Amino acid sequence: MLVLVGSLIVIGCVLGGYVLSHGHLLALWQPYELMIIFGGAIGAFLTANSSKVVKDALREIAALVKGPRYRKQDFVDLLSLLYDIFGVMRKEGLLGMEEHIENPQASSLYSAYPRLMREHHLVEFINDCLRLIVGGNMEPIELEALLDAEVETHHMEAEVPAMAVSKMADALPGFGIVAAVLGIVTTMSNLGGDTSAIGEHIAGALVGTFLGILLCYGFVGPLGAAMEARVREDGRAFECVKVGLLANLRGYNPKVSVEFARKVLPPYARPNFQDLEDHLSKVHAGAAA
Question: Could you tell me if 56 and 95 are in contact, meaning their C-beta atoms sit under 8 angstroms apart?
Answer without folding.
Answer: no
